[in-house]
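Chapter review: from sequence to fold.
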Amino acid sequence: MKKTLIALLFILGSYAVEAQELVWSNNLRNSVEVSKKTKKPLMLFFTGSDWCGWCIKLQNEVFRTPEFVKWANENVVLVELDFPRRTTLAPEITEQNNQLQQFFAVQGYPTVWFVNATLSDGKINMDKLGTTGYLAGGPKVWVDNANSILKKK
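The token string follows.
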């Protein structure tokens, strides 16, 4: 009986952990569609996932915490715009990321932009709400700052 109960708790715990995972898209067009359906702004995360120390720190201290997961699932559509050095991305993703890096004038990583995006005549239009990056203080400080940016929408 105890073994069955322990196994059941382990399985349920696995589902709970899985439910807390975030879904990061790397396709802007698909993300705009999700944004339209959910009426949530996009959170564009410009990162160097395999080399940028501050990006990794932001991921570990904020983005991988239960507080952030809950907030993100309720408030934004997540888009990762990666500029890795050791991993090769699909050419269309690399081109998309480079264009967005230029459009938003991103010069350092991590950079996070919050935007309202719409599709019009096959083109994506973006209304910039605000930007941030790494902030010391953990998920509460980061989420409070993000909320202040999103209030502008």
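Two observations follow directly from the output. The two ends are 54 Å apart (CA to CA). Strands lie at 42-47, 77-82, 111-120, 123-132.
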